[in-house]
C-alpha cells in the first residue's frame, strides 16, 4: 500500500492522524534504524568489577551509536495519543 492509500484509509477514522501519518512513519523508521543493530549485539558486559574506561566504552559502543542515530531531535517528538471510541 502506498503512502497516499495509507493516509486515505486512516482519514476515514481520523483526519488529524492521517495528516500526521508521514511524521509518524519517519519517527518509527528512525527508531528501527537505531534499534536494529542492537539486535545483533551482545548485552554490554558491565559489572561491579573494575574495568578500564576503554573497555567500558567498547562494551557500550553499540548503545552509544544507537543514541547517536536517534539524535537529539528524538526528544522533540510530541506523542499526542488519543483513543477513538
Describe the model.
It contains three helices and no strands. The radius of gyration is 19 Å and the shape is elongated. It is mainly alpha-helical. It has helices at 3-11, 15-35, 53-70.
- Shape annotation: elongated
What's the SSE pattern? Answer: HHH
| Poorly predicted segments | none
Strand tally is 0
Distance between the termini: 26 Å
**What Rg is obtained from the alpha carbons, in whole angstroms?**
19 Å
Number of helices: 3
What is the percentage of strand-forming residues?
Answer: under 5%
Mean pLDDT: 82
Biggest sheet: strands, sense, closure? none
What is the total number of structural domains? Answer: 1
Structural category is: mainly alpha
What is the percent of helical residues? 55-70%
Q: Can you give me a brief rundown of this structure?
A:
The protein has 85 residues and is an all-alpha fold. 56% of the residues lie in helices and 0% in strands. It contains three helices and no strands.
Amino acid at each position: 500500500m502506498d503512502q497516499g492509500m495509507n493516509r486515505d484509509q486512516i482519514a476515514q477514522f481520523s483526519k488529524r492522524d492521517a495528516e500526521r501519518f508521514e511524521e509518524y512513519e519517519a519517527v518509527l523508521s528512525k527508531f528501527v534504524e537505531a534499534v536494529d543493530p542492537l539486535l545483533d549485539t551482545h548485552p554490554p558486559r558491565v559489572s561491579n568489577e573494575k574495568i578500564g574506561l576503554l573497555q567500558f566504552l567498547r562494551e557500550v559502543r553499540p548503545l552509544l551509536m544507537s543514541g547517536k542515530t536517534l539524535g537529539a531531535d528524538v526528544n522533540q517528538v510530541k506523542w499526542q495519543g488519543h483513543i477513538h471510541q
